[in-house]
Specification:
The complex is a heterodimer of chains A (about 525) and B (about 300). Chain A is built from 19 helices and 22 strands. Chain A has about 525 residues and is of the alpha/beta class. Chain A has 4 domains: about 5-95 and about 170-250, P-loop containing nucleotide triphosphate hydrolases (Rossmann fold), CATH 3.40.50; about 105-170; about 265-345 and about 430-440 and about 465-525, Rossmann fold (3-Layer(aba) Sandwich); about 350-430, no CATH class. In chain A, strand 19, helix 16 and strand 20 form a beta-alpha-beta unit. In chain A, helix 5 (about 125-140) crosses helix 6. Chain B is mostly helical and about 300 residues long. Chain B has a single domain (about 1-115, about 130-285), classed as ABC transporter involved in vitamin B12 uptake, BtuC. Chain B has helices spanning about 1-30, 40-55, 60-85, 90-110, 135-150, 155-165, 165-170, 175-200, 215-225, 230-250, 255-260, 265-275; strands at about 125, 130. The longest helix of chain B is centred in the N-terminal third of the chain and has 30 residues, at about 1-30. Chain B is globular. The chains are: A alpha/beta (about 525), B mainly alpha (about 300). Bound molecules: adenosine-5'-triphosphate and magnesium ion (MG). Adenosine-5'-triphosphate (ATP) binds next to strand 2, helix 2 and helix 15 of chain A. Chain B: Keywords: Cell membrane, Membrane, Transmembrane, Transmembrane helix. Chain B: It is a multi-pass membrane protein. Chain B: This is ABC transporter permease. Chain B: It is found in: Cell membrane.
Amino acid sequence: MTHSDLSGSASAAGAPPALRLRGITKRFPGVVANDSVDLTVHAGEVLALLGENGAGKSTLISILYGLYQPDEGAVELDGRAVRIGSPAQALRLGIGLVPQHPLLVSRHSVAENLALGGAGGLFPARRVAGRVRELSARYGLEVDPDSRVADLSPGEKQRVEIVRALLGGARVLILDEPTSVLTPQEADGLFRVMRELKADGRSLIFISHKLDEVLAVADRVTVLRRGKVVGGVPTLGATRESLAELMVGRSVDFTRKRAGGPGAEAGALLSVQDLSAQGSRGLPALRGVSFELRRGEVLGVAGIAGNGQSELVEVLAGLHEATGTVTLDGQPLSGDAAGRFRAGVAHIPEDRIHSGTVPTMTVAENLALRDFGRAPLARGLARDLGATDDRARREVEAYSVATPGIHTPTRLLSGGNIQKLILARELAGQPKLILAVHPTYGLDIGATDQVHRVLLDRTAQGAGVLLVSEDLDELLSLSDRVAVMVGGSLLGPFPADEVTRESLGLLMGGAHPHSLPGAAQGGVVA
Amino acid sequence: MDNVVIEALVRALAVGTPLLLACLGAILNERAGVVNLGVEGLMAVGALAAFAVAAGSPDANLWLAVGAAMLAGAALALLHAVATVTLRANQFVSGLALALIGTGAAGLLGKRFEGLPLFNKVADWTLGSFTISPFTVAALLLAGAMAFWLGATRSGLTLRSVGENPAAADVLGVNVGLTRVLAVLGGGALAGMAGAFLALSYRSSWADNMTAGLGWIAVALVIFVGWRPLRAIAGALFFGFLYYLQFRLQGNSPIPTEVFSAMPFVLVLVVLALAGMRGQAGNAPAALGRAYVRGER
Ligand SMILES: Nc1ncnc2c1ncn2[C@@H]1O[C@H](COP(=O)(O)OP(=O)(O)OP(=O)(O)O)[C@@H](O)[C@H]1O
Ligand SMILES: [Mg+2]
């Protein structure tokens, strides 16, 4: 009998749940983010909170963490009503949070970030560094206490947040999409942590759009839809399909989406020769990378964050200096990002909040960022606001972005909806080359499905997609060929049907490609 | 020759002292994310408070006078703290108002002291032909202490984090509002101390417009030194030296004095231009000048 089975009977025997929310309602202008939500978590239990983008998951846990005050409803800890007026109070009550978007001080070192809010007066950063190394070694969550947060990739930042939550030692730990930018190995490390905490009698709330993870780690699932709880089931006996249906209200297709791909006769669209670049830390980020992307092809790039994938995409998008030659459609590709966009290069960046959108600008303005100065969004020197709004309405509709209106600043949107907005903007023209970094990061399954279809659609029309993702299932289901980046070198590409999750995982970890199946055909360009 | 160098150093240190003190104060509140343009006003009330206490009787306690100056600076800064942190008013507007209130009040209330000498000043320490004010020594030590405190202590780290990313600090249970209020009060106290130096050490009698634009230079200096306390020493010395040059020129040149009285403001521009050239603006605390509202996305 597992611990989770016990927790159910314990509550039946009269022990109050570790955490109970009663009738929580939170309204924002134009939306009811939470509509009398009831929720319980027992000691030694992992509750998964599921829901589409904008369903109100982050809002609910922000209330639990004292970041928002509910309009109605009550919170009980161990059967006693508590008022959580601030994060400080939440921490005192033993509630910890790994936020959806990293909340870290960019200019400070990792250790300084982790030391903030801890104990000890002198040299707080130095004190914490040892504990951090120990925790990260123990759980396989690699973080370097001395590096500056500004230099970290989103995945690395996420690891810092997780380590910080572990340092805090909370009784109730909330994890808001902690795995969206983690590699499978890192996610496994996190799940080990979660199981240990659970065995330790703590309560965890886990938010994720990846249903496999939910099935693997959660005991029970509560589903939100448009702010309301629409169901709850134990994960025992549930399947990916049944959870998906509960979430979106219809069945979702999980099968491999990519069938044929372009034949060998398809011409080269993008050709990259001997690309080298410096990283922000002064180390080489790209070491002589060469590959070809064919018309109509999806080329997947796997790799652990920080191995050069970001730099590769930034170089191609015109945001990073490099040496080497790049041609698109036979024409040399050079110049700044705006020029490259006009030449047909779309870029879905990895940091959606800071480089993907301007948070204080409205939905309509963010959608027009690429081409507000040109027809049809401008006439002569004047912008055509009517046309801008019309197009914004169409895009919001087409990508089902949940927003109160097209004049809402994007900072008010939920994480997944911001991502949809970027996709809508970048894919609006008819790009020849789509650089997609974690394109479905934070998207719910319905939206993920939709984005996959859009990308495949574009390849059917002859566009090439360079897909960088740490989600190997996504890579394998979409790509025609997959390459792996390790230490700034590119291994592969290998035909997608000759590699597996496992072999890719090994390559990402630095195993020698010749020892793996598929290496012979794919060849190694490093 | 040596004497010229020593004199230049002594004078640069003297003018540099209020610059350094006020600049350290401004660094304190700006590292917490609050701009205070009212330093000139804070210095003015500090000077007035110090003078009022010291001029009261022949055996007035000078420590008390310095304390009064710091208290006066902090009290006026409290207005700024309430306006910008609690009421979330625009920091620039509130700071400008503070400058006007402070200089105005000091001018008005100081009328009755005009021309009045002090019974006893804070005596300089001398080493041969080299003289240095205890205030200067205190300011130098303070710069070192502040650098250490910001870099190596938990409360220093908290203050910096609040200035960089208040939301991140908040999520970890830091009281952002309180931290900022305390930082603004500390900044006010240091500006008040700069005023006390002018009243008790630099000049020997009360004069209107005692601060003479030094507060404005101090505000600009913060940018020039990239918000770093130790660099503030070099910055204050450098601008103290420019001031000294100005006095020298003023004494024996045909240039009208009006030109020289515009000097502080020219210096502010010079400071900002130099800071711009050195790319210092990129060092600004990330949340500088912005009110923090919890839960605002
Ligand atoms: N501070 C705010 N002001 C206005 N609207 C808000 C605010 N915070 C959230 N919302 C709205 O409330 C709704 C729920 O948002 P929330 O972030 O909780 O969604 P979510 O379930 O976490 O979605 P995702 O999976 O995309 O992260 C969204 O429509 C969002 O736009
Ligand atoms: Mg969310």
